[in-house]
Amino acid sequence: MKEIFYFITDVGWGHLTRSIAVLEKLLSTVPEVKITVKLGRDLTQVPSLFPDTDRITLKNLPFKLVPGWPATYPFPVEVLQDMIADWLSQWENMVEHLRKEINKASLVLTDASPLPIEAAFREGVPSVFISNFNFYDEYSHIVREPSLEKMKKAYEKVSWAFLLPLESENTVFKIVDRAPLIAREHNPLKVQEIRRDLRTRYRPEMIAVISMGGFYSIPEILIESIVEASKKAKILWLVPEGIELPKGILAHQYRKYEDFRNLLAASDFVIAKYGYGIASEAVVSRVPMVLFYRSAILEDSIASEELVLSGSALRFPWEACCSIPLEEVFYLDFSNLSKRMENKGAAYIVEKIIKRFL
Fold first, then answer.
1. d(CA 19, CA 79)
2. Neighbour tally for 97: CB within 10 Å
3. What gap in Å lies between CA 70 and CA 337, rounded to an integer?
4. CA 171, 308, 294: angle at the middle one, nearest 5?
5. Preceding amide of 74 cis, omega within 30
6. How confident is the model at residue 217 (pLDDT cuts 50, 70, 90)?
7. Which residues lie below 8 Å from residue 60, measured CB to CB, with a gap of 6+?
8. Cβ atoms within 10 A of the Cβ of 88, count?
């Protein structure tokens, strides 16, 4: 039985969903593999999203796999700089911890963090990077921190790098394998059931789902836009649990980690903070997107622009949320997406991994 360690940076929707899609394909294609999933954030809310099998073990790490981002946006650069410096000061201890974890592994996979790559290199274990961005380029675009070179040098030691569509800037990988999109498919029967239930309960003209990511509440100016949009049409707004919209606005709360792919596919459009998970599953389900992006962050700016140029999304800077142009949303379509935006990434990556490493 071969053992793979899969390091998932955090519980953001993109990190989780693309990693789970690869895990599912690995398990179904390679019967003799056992996978240990290590998360750099709390696992308590997410186990139900993973395949239910004794071939997967889920474990928390005692530290973060990346410094992350400040909890509010816009953020002072100094706050991010302090987060990065504090995390990098623990670099050697974290790498040595991971070395002990993976010393019997056949392969190490990482969705974005350079730490597992460095640990695998020191242990002589092959490593594979699977993401649409890397944190060195994201951070070095914002802060001037010399010790970031540790991250860059670690990324350069990877055995193989798969870059996904909606990719950000890349200066660390000299040779990359540009894979197709990775997203989970929705369940058509479940989608029909959700739509039927929501339409029976609320009688809306349209259904819109809102997702602002794990750290962000709905901005006040966007709430004003929701109120204005609700005057034009009877819209049912699907909002995360705990989010309250003004009285008189038709709203239905959903749990953060419930099966979001089917909820998204049951909607007429999505309003979201840009993220790979939201964007990829909206593309697969052909749900028009209204995206708010953090202009200071490369991934947000570059990837959301790609979706706009393809005609499948509208986008606005987070700093300037504005009224929702409902009349434009329904002119969006998915006919101009590139071939790489087909949901074939998990199969493509697993086939390459088997040939090269298993």
1. 29
2. 15
3. 32
4. 60
5. yes
6. confident
7. 38, 39, 41, 42, 43
8. 18
Going by C-alpha positions, the residue among 2, 70, 12 that lies closest to residue 256 is 12
Report CA torsion sign: 316, 320, 326, 328. Answer: negative
Note every long-range contact of 53-61, with CB atoms under 8 Å and residues 24 or more positions apart, other chains counting. 53/27, 55/27, 56/23, 56/27, 61/97
Query: What letter would DSSP give residue 246?
Result: P
Q: The tokens 């690995």 sit on which residue?
A: 26
* CATH H superfamily, domain 2-182+343-357: Glycogen Phosphorylase B; (3.40.50.2000)
Handedness of CA 48, 285, 128, 10 (dihedral sign): negative
- State the CB neighbour count (10 A cutoff) for residue 194: 22
pLDDT at 257: 64
User: What are the residue ranges of helices labelled H in 238-313?
Assistant: 260-265, 276-285, 298-309
Identify the residue whose tokens are 């379509």: 333
Which stretches does DSSP call E strand in the chain? 2-8, 33-39, 56-60, 107-110, 127-131, 160-163, 177-178, 206-211, 235-240, 251-254, 269-273, 289-293, 313-317
Spatial separation of the C-alpha atoms in residues 229 and 234, rounded to whole Å: 9
Q: Where in the chain is the domain with CATH 3.40.50.2000?
A: 2-182+343-357, 188-341
pLDDT digits (tens, 9 = 90+) for 257-296: 667 889 999 999 999 888 898 999 999 999 999 998 888 9
| CA distances for 94 relative to 7, 29, 91, 109, 147, angstroms | 13, 32, 5, 17, 15
Rounded CA separation 259/265 (Å)? 11
Q: What global pTM score does this model have?
A: 0.92
pLDDT of res. 323: 72
Residue-wise pLDDT for 59-99, tens only, equals: 889 999 999 998 888 889 999 999 999 999 999 999 999 99
Please state which architecture CATH assigns to domain 188-341.
3-Layer(aba) Sandwich (3.40)
Coil, strand or helix at 64: coil
